[in-house]
Amino acid sequence: MSEATTRLDAALAVPDEHTAVLDMARAFHIEDGHPMDAAAEAAMLASIRGDAAAALAPTYVLRLDGVIVGFFVLSLGYSPEHGGMDAFIDDIYLLPAVRGQGLGREAVSCAVAAARARGVRVMMLEVEKHNDRAYRLYAAMGFVDTQRRLMRRYL
Asked: Which residues span the domain enclosing 18?
């Protein structure tokens, strides 16, 4: 699922994939300088197990040639300001071994397609101030800087 042809395949994570996703989530949060605590890990697991959390924050795995190489989480909401459903890309991550191949753009496209399929009208995300590379990618893909480093894209 993507806006254009993609090498990545995105699908909802299933319980059997919880270890791979949790390992990547831990790595992502360490890279960004805010390691996961027990509550964050429990919330991540809940979003994979199909608990009520999965309806509000579904987790998707990203596969390249059938191998899990990343994940993203869509936190879903409703905003009268934006005329309906909105989504926040809560986490998006690719393994270091597959970075630098244009897959970041494809991963974001997969997240956009997943949100669009759920009827989302506006997507938002945040990017760490030090992560200029990701910031430029998101801007090039239509996300707008709100001057709070919170970005959105109308769908």
From this structure: 8-154
